[in-house]
Amino acid sequence: MDYKIIAEKVVKKALKLGVDEAEAYLQNSREFELNIRKGEVETIKQATSKGIGLTVYKDKKLGFSYTSDFSSDSLDEFVKRTVDLSLVSDAKSWNGLPDFEKREQKDLDLWDPSISKIENSKKIAIAKKVEKIALSFDKRITNSEGGFYGDSDTEIIIVNSKDISRKIKGSGVYFGTGVIAGEGNNMQSGWWSSAKTHFKDLDNIEEVAKKAGQRAVEKLGAKPVKTQKVPLVLDRYAAPSFWYGILFAINGDSVFKKTTFLTDYLVKPIASKLITIIDDPTIARHIASRPFDGEGKITRKNTLIKEGILKMFIYDSLTARKAGVKVNTMARRSGYKNLPYGRFINVIVQNGKTKREKIISGIKEGFLVKGLRGFGTDIPTGNFSVGASGFWIKNGEIAFPVDGVTLGGNTLEILKNIEAVADDLDLRGSLNSPSFKVAEIAVGGKK
Amino acid sequence: MKKRYLKPINRREFIKKSMAGGVVVATLPLWNLYSGNLLTEEHSVSFGFNLDREILEKILEIALQNGGEFAEVYAEYTINNGISLEEDKIHSASRGADMGVGIRVLHGEKTGYAHCDDLNIGKLKETAKVAGLIASGKARQKEFDLQQEKIPSYYMAKVSPESIVAQEKAKLLWKANSIARAVDKRISQVNVGFGDMNKKIIIANSEGAWVEDKQTITRLVVFVNAIDKEKRSRGYSYKGGTLGYEHYSLKIAEEIAKDACRMALAMLPAEDAPAGEYPIIMAKGHCGTFFHEAIGHSLEGDGARKKTTCFWDSKGEIIASEIVSLADDGTVPGKRGTINIDDEGTPGQKTILIEKGRCKGFLYDKLNAKLMKVKSTGNGRRQSYQHYPIPRMTNTFLMAGQDNPEDIVKSIKHGIYISRIGGGNVTPTTGRFVFSVPEGYLIEEGKITKPLKGIQLMGNGPDVLKNITMVGHDLEIWGGGTCGKDGQSKPVSDGNPTLKVSKITIGGAKIRRG
Description:
The complex is a heterodimer of chains A (about 450) and B (about 525). Chain A has about 450 residues and is of the alpha+beta class. Chain A has helices spanning about 5-15, 70-85, 120-135, 205-215, 240-250, 250-255, 315-325, 355-360, 410-415, and strands at about 20-35, 40-60, 60-65, 140-160, 165-185, 185-195, 230-235, 275-280, 300-305, 310, 330, 340, 345-350, 365-375, 385-395, 395-410, 420, 430, 435-445. The mean pLDDT of chain A is about 95. Helix content of chain B is about 20%, strand content about 40%. The model of chain B is unreliable at about 1-45 (pLDDT under 50). The chains are: A alpha+beta (about 450), B alpha+beta (about 525). β2 (about 40-60) of chain A pairs parallel with β5 of chain B, so a sheet runs across the interface.
């Protein structure tokens, strides 16, 4: 079925009912999900789903509805109800569809048509193999959380009354495993996975399995340390959780409402000169890339922080219009059930020049953090507080595993105290960072 | 734990990713306004959502044609309504409809699952066939006769929120907004939302069960921000549950708005929390999330069967101090986690998890119960027709003790008072947790004194259970939130009496020297 026709019909119907502007966002997907445990298939899930979200503006008033029921009577009713809802909300001068530039949609090679043709037996074999290798990685591995594999094809269509008509088909494929090391009160789990747009880009099965095994075993015997201040190295795979708070704090809507501690910091230094952060959804074949954003605007590369200076806040079109700023907007959409909102799309903290080993070997006593628990940065105040696990560094070497401690401080101080950035960036998802070192941080543990 | 890529990553997904899996991410009590739900009879008819006995039996037969041992149909029609107010304006009014059917086939330890969003009989048959492929063998004879079952109701819903027009709900929002803005000029932002979820489900299985349920979940929530020079703070409050619209009024809106402002203003002068080990008090009603996350998840039957949680072999053992009893109860009237039936059709029930310090058992769905040779405890729950059921909590609470709440506070010389517990997460394998504390105070010489910001509670569940030294007689179950597990969100509630934990690690910005 050509879903673009449905999207177009819905928009036309809304206009006919007297709205000033309308936009349909349609999503249609196929998914496959498989779990293996101890060499046996545990679950197989296969499904197709679809849904449409309709946004209308009438006299600058917003109405929004979604439905997964595409029968034509229901769709007529759906459009009518959406138009009715717009009467309930208040007019806002900034309400309305985004302004569009004339730009062509690029082919980012996000769809691998071969994925949907892979036999289930091959998928089962991958999930079994990754679990098996992880289980045999080390004698101390005692149990399995299973091996998994999944893939999906997703089609997104955006049609609106400003003659914008976009369509993208993307695929995703992933596999991984989780294992448990140790026994009784000394159990630790280790997980690892690989996710790509194309099947043949997936990481090697052995590597993924060994990494999961390694991550479980290396934590065995982890213990808290005493409360103290030490240098910190944040591992590249734990770092995104830290950056997430910063990216939330530069959300344009929070800035407009003055509910973030970074409200007054535009074009001011907020971090060490070593820090440059971009949002780049245009990288070909990357799992977090998008040719157009949640509003249908063609994406581009944006610099958020350049050498420590905050260069821009993150806006969707409506918020930018409300705040009276002209910027490249970044709008996300978490599916057809939601309206778009300003949010980074694919953030990359730029690589530094230092080798990670060199950063660690230069620390007399410090904390290499491999996992953060909790959200970290409190957006209104910038207070930073989070649970952490990892390894204690002594005389430039890894000494023992640590867990059950907290990190605390002020986010701005931590950012400014970044002394070194490693060159170990690994593009894995929508938020990517190399490892980095903070000169000093408060570690809360035993008295 | 299982990620679906090519879908935007929300905050929870992100935290999961960053922890590289294996983590149950905590109840985020506030950030989804629109997850209420119910269908009145006339609506269910007007949407033409029905599956008769003949169709259900046919689907089950097809699902078993490859020799599966058990087949189940779960059909759902959900209407979500939401309305929100911010910056002195009704921001949006929205409505959503989800309709679909999930078909599950069990064969030994294996689950085959398929779903479709179409009630077309051809599509349903095809979906049943795909789910049945998990088994390989000869078709089984049809040996069931669907019998429709009647069930008691624990919901407190007389007036369906579906029958109330958005303009009427908007009055609650306006009332809360004007009250909050009048409280104090330091209140700088007010956001108010009302959401209702109206769901009809039909479940039928090859054991002959056939049951329907109509669920209504509503919530009115107020968030405020306060600013005083350089200082900023937040406050929130809400009312919600399996409640009809008759439970909301302008008076309720006013109370919630005032409570949210009270919290923000109280926290405005807050100082950095000290880091280190302290005795703490958890305030009644508002700290149940802790027990849900740090203890409850480790007592779910899937982890117990797979031996992956810290309590998997603890049944019959002492795992807590003898004043600690913990229960999960889907039948507490009107709460957010209340269920007449779970999402496998098993009636909601009360399960004692810990009795006087002793572990009594786990929460089960059908599959894990069967494999462990016990009965389902009515905890097989799923987010929607797109998900297969897994063991989940409903309303989880620490049971009332003997102590006088005032005596509990007086017993602490220097410690921390936790008024409200926020989001957090826990690794079930180790029981390790971290929770943020949006409202907390210092206790000095038995008195609650200064407000503290940036408190993080951390430790592991088993240790905390042993360190509970006083439990009040004032059990309260508050509004509740939405719990995430294995990528599925589900409404839950939790509660606790005032209680004392003799020592727990506090992560905070301030380090005490010496």
